[in-house]
Each structure stands twice: as C-alpha cells, then as structure tokens.
Amino acid sequence: MNKARKIAIAGATGMVGQSFLKLLEEDFFQDSEISLLASSNSAGKEINFRGKNHKVEDLSKFNFSNIELALFSAGSSVASTYAPIAVSQGCVVVDNSSCFRYEDDIPLIVPEVNSKVLDDYELPGIIANPNCSTIQMLVALKPLHDEFIIERIDVTTFQAVSGTGKKATEELIDQIDAYEGNAKIKSSIYPKPIANNVLPHCDEFEENRYTKEENKLVRETHKILDPNIHVAATCVRVPVLNGHSESVHIKTKRPVSEDLALKLLQEAPGLSVKYGKSEEDYPTAFTDGDGSYLVQVGRVRKDLWDENRLNLWVVADNLLKGAALNSIQIASLLFD
C-alpha cells in the first residue's frame, strides 16, 4: 500500500475542512505533512493544527506534483476545475462535492458498502464521496439488503443546518436569539425561518418536483447499492445544529426476521445499534450522532401489516461520517 506522505486539504477553512483537520489531528495520517488550501479570499489566514500555525495557501496557485492525496471539500465548481489538475499532476483526489458522483468512470464509495469497486480502479484518479444522507442510510441498509434483498426504500430525512454550511448554522442561532428577544426573524439562507420550524425543502427543486437532495438519494443508492431498488425520499431541514436523522421503511423480496435483522445490524461494520426494553433506547442526533464516527440505528421494528417490511431510525454526524470521515476512510483504503 502506498504512503500518503503529503496531503492537501482543499476547502480547509469550511466546516467540512475543519472536520478533516480534526480527524487528521486526532486519528488519521498523523505522520503526513498537511497543506491547507482555500480560495484567494482566505489565502494567508493561519489555522492552528497539530500545535502549530499553518498558513492557508491559494488553491488556484498550488502545485500538486508533490502531493499523494488531496481531500476536496470546496464545492462542485471548484472541484470541476482543480480536481482534474491535481490528478494530472499525479495526485489522488477524494472529492466531497456532487461534481463527479454520477460519472460512470468515477467510483462513488461508502467503504462499508462497496469498497471492492476500488480494487480495479486505476490511480491516480478521482474518487467521489456520496451525499451525507445517502452514506448513513446505506451503511445501515447494506447488511439487510445482502440478506433479504431490498426492493423499495421510503425515507424521510431530518437534516441539520450544518449540512448547508457555517452561515446557515449562524442564521439558526441568530433566529433563536431573535425569537427569544421578541425581535423580527430574518431569513437569508433558507426561504423561510428555520428556527422553531421544519422545511420540507433541502437544496433546489428539480423538474420532477423532487428536490436535488431527494434525487441524490435515488441516484446514489442505485450506483452504490443496487440499481433495481425503488427509492422515494422526502428531505426535511430541521432546527438542529449538527447531525442528520432518517426514518427509513424498507420492503424486501424475502420475509424479514426481526431477530435476524438485529443480529445483522449489530455485527455490521460502522454501526451502533440501540435496541432493548427501554422506551428511550434509541439514538438522537444530539446525544448520539454528533461527534460519533459510527452510524446509529434504533427503533428497529417489523411492519404491522406485511412480513416483508421493516422500519428503522438512522442517525449520524453529517460533517463526520456524512462527509469528512467517509472521505478519509476512502483514502485509508488506498494509503497508509
């Protein structure tokens, strides 16, 4: 396995970029030299990392020829320009944006689900990181699909504002302060106030009247898990700072045994299962998802009317397993 002696973080000043740095500081590639990259507006800023101040460099002027691995979280427009440049200079790119996810020749990877796709992938190249909601759902559903064969998924997501970015997080906090102070609530990030509200609207609406986020769940499930699964999604933005939750209902080809389903989930990689006699034995975004490397599963129960249906509740940190951590886990499959 190759060594990632030098790693670049593109989008180092953003929320996912900061999550990359925390992971690299605490648990991953700790012997590697790290370069911090961002737009010209952020170039020159200093970020404390591993006990030292590191100056942020201008991505547009950076030479990747001495870099083995680049972790991109700078948006699709930036990735479309600079990820191919990095690859042309001999660098492996793991991209967190939606830019390359649906390209036939670019792998879209959740390590616990389809890492074998990388066995025949020629490097250097680009590897795409899926959408946060897709990642946590498919980590939970992979062991169930292997055993029972999932034919249909109906999912409602409850997505934290950190998925939109730092400004959305700040807007939620400002709106809560305004509400408590009886001041006028202003909305600029979302079309309606997010404080004390839920918005069935994540990303833009597309021609089929589903949002881009909902269509991502369909397309990415087909590419990563199985193109034959029917997927219906409703994505909802909720006034939670960090951590996405999902209510997932599946229909399977074979009858589902609840005991076997629990056993499969408990033994699967990347999962933590909460199941017992306590009425409160379930995960939440705040108490379990936020800060955890694992996807959390609870409320596992058979459908009341159909032996081929199962319900479950899935929670994860959207900045970690839904973004930075999944990207670094992909990189760990390729590099020491």
Folded structure, characterized:
It is globular, with a radius of gyration of 20 Å. The longest helix has 17 residues, at 132-148. By secondary structure, it is an alpha/beta fold. It is built from 9 helices and 14 strands. The mean pLDDT is 95. The strands form 3 sheets. It has a 6-stranded parallel beta sheet with strand order 5-2-1-6-7-8, sandwiched between helices. Strands 10-9-11-14-13-12 form a 6-stranded mixed beta sheet. The protein starts with 5 loop residues before the first strand and ends with a helix. It folds into 2 domains: 6-130 and 323-334, NAD(P)-binding Rossmann-like Domain (Rossmann fold), CATH 3.40.50; 133-318, 2-Layer Sandwich (Dihydrodipicolinate Reductase, domain 2). It has helices spanning 15-26, 76-88, 111-114, 132-148, 166-180, 212-224, 258-267, 285-289, 320-334; strands spanning 6-10, 33-38, 46-49, 52-55, 57-58, 69-72, 92-95, 126-128, 150-159, 230-237, 244-252, 271-273, 295-302, 309-316. Helix 4 crosses helix 9.
